[in-house]
Structure formats: C-alpha cells, structure tokens
Amino acid sequence: MTTLRSVRGLIAMHLLLIRFSFRSSMQYRFNFWFGTIASAVIASVEFSLLAVILARFGAIQGWTLTESAYLYAVLVLAKALYRSLASDVHHLEKYLVSGDLDGLLLRPVPVLLALMTRNFSVRVGETLLGASMLAYSLAALARDGAIELWVALPLTLAAVVNGALLLFGIGLATAAMGFWMTRIEVLQNMTEDAAHTAVRYPLSIYPGWLKALLSTALPVAFVNYWPAMFILKGAVGGWTLALSAAASAAALAAGGWLWSRGLRSYQSTGS
Questions:
Q1: Tens place of pLDDT per residue across the chain (271 aa)
Q2: What is the DSSP string of 245-256?
Q3: 2, 20, 110, 251: which one has the fewest Cβ atoms less than 10 Å from its Cβ?
Q4: What is the distance between the alpha carbons of residues 67 and 176, in angstroms, rounded to a whole number?
Q5: Transmembrane segments in this chain: where (predicted)?
Q6: Whole-number Å distance between alpha carbons of 155 and 87
Q7: H helices of 177-224, where?
Q8: Which ranges constitute the DSSP H helices of the chain?
Q9: How far apart are CA 170 and CA 161, in angstroms?
C-alpha cells in the first residue's frame, strides 16, 4: 500500500510539473507553434524522399510504399511520445556544461523527474503526421486484405508505447554517459539520431552486420521493424513482440543503472 501511494504521488507530481512547464512554454506561442509546424514539415519531407523512390521502383526488398509508411509512422509516433515526456533528458549536456543541473539537485523531487518535466511540449506536428500516416497505411493494408484491422491496430498501439519506452531507455543511457564524458553530442548522434534515421527504412536494405547491430547492441529495430515483421507480414512468430518488450525493459534497466551510478559520481560545478 505504501509503495502504491508513492507511485501515485510521483505521478501526481510529474503531471503538476508538466503543467507548469507547459504553461511556461506557452508564454512564447509563436516559437511553440513555429517549432511544431517545422518539425512536422521536416518529417514529411524526409518520408517524401522515400516515397519518390518507392513510386519509381515499386518496392524495396519486398517492402511496399504502404508498409514503409507504417514503419515510418510507428517510429515518428514513438519518438514523439518519448520526446514529449522526456525532452530535456536528451539535452542533459547543456545542464552539465552550464551547471544548471546543480539547481535541480536542490529541488525536493528526484533529479530525473525534474529533468523530464522541464521544457515540456507536446509534439503536436509529429504526432498528427505519424497518426495520419498510420491511419493511411493500416486502412490500405486492411483494404488489400493484408491485415485484420481489429488485430493490427491494438498491436500497433502497443508497439508505439513499447517503442517510446525503448527510445527513452537508450536516450537515458546515452545521457547518463555525460556524467563521465560531459560532452555527449557525438555519442547521441550515433545512438539516437543516426539510429533513428536507420530504422525509418526496412532493415532488409542494410548489410547483415548493421542489421545485427540495430537488433542487439543498439536494439532500435524493435521499435518498428521487428513488430512490423509480425503484425504486417507474419514472417516471424508472436515471440517477436515479447522480445520487443524485453528489449525495452533491458534498455530501461541499463539506462536507470547508468543514471544512478552517474548521478552519484557527479561533481558539482559549485555555481
């Protein structure tokens, strides 16, 4: 019962901090909406480049435009959910360099919770883009008889949530390395930016070593590719979904462990 109360208290505190952060960000409404629209436009252009290629050649390694749109949509939604709920975890470097993390240490809330609720913003543009692409792809695949919508839809939503947790775990582990390295931009370029870009497309287009890397050491393929292999193609068993959940649990555990160790070794700037 005590544990349940503690969890409820943390959730209530998290929601309260998010509310304050959102109200603060809305003081600059032009910047908020401009950034929202810009992120959606950039994501749209990126997928349009793939769509042009697929429209010319019909399919890539057995993946049609509709199936590729599904992969892209799941990734966009998972990333939007992760960045909405934990945006400044990705920006830990600036807190370490400026010494602003010291201020979070003085707050009567866990440091990670305080960081997750800073500069909160709902990724409206990316969420709408991902949702529309997902609706299009699922409707088209159901119309063609490739999937049963009533089965694919809940499994897809579960994959999006699991993918967001997986991306958060990887992002947290990468950010935690900043406690020792301070500068982690290059590392984030590899573990987050480059990895996210890679799984926008079917992994079957990549060489075996890269496909293995994105499925093991840096398991971002479990955000969309491997769930899609079961949900859309039925090429693998349902165990793939369980393996995806295990990958996110492992990433969260690794990220939490590194964060805890790193925070204990953090040397305050004294500012």
A1: 555 555 465 556 555 555 655 565 556 666 666 666 766 676 667 667 666 666 666 677 788 889 988 999 999 999 999 988 888 898 899 999 888 898 888 877 788 988 887 776 777 778 888 898 899 999 999 999 999 999 999 999 999 999 999 999 999 999 999 999 989 999 999 999 889 889 988 898 899 999 999 999 999 999 999 999 999 999 999 999 999 999 999 999 999 999 999 999 887 755 5
A2: HHHHHHHHHHHH
A3: 2
A4: 35
A5: 33-57, 69-85, 159-182, 203-226, 238-259
A6: 26
A7: 178-181, 185-188, 195-198, 208-213
A8: 2-25, 29-57, 65-85, 92-98, 101-105, 111-116, 124-143, 149-176, 178-181, 185-188, 195-198, 208-213, 225-231, 239-265
A9: 14
Tokens standing for residue 201: 């497309």
pTM: 0.85
Residue found by looking up tokens 């930016």 in the block: 193
59's tokens: 């399919």
Residue reference for tokens 């959102």: 22
Residue of 141, 133, 18 whose CA lies nearest to 78: 133
Residue count (the chain): 271
Q: Are 158 and 242 in contact (CB under 8 A)?
A: no
Q: Residue 67 corresponds to which tokens in the numbers above?
A: 């199936």
Where are the domains positioned within the chain? 2-265
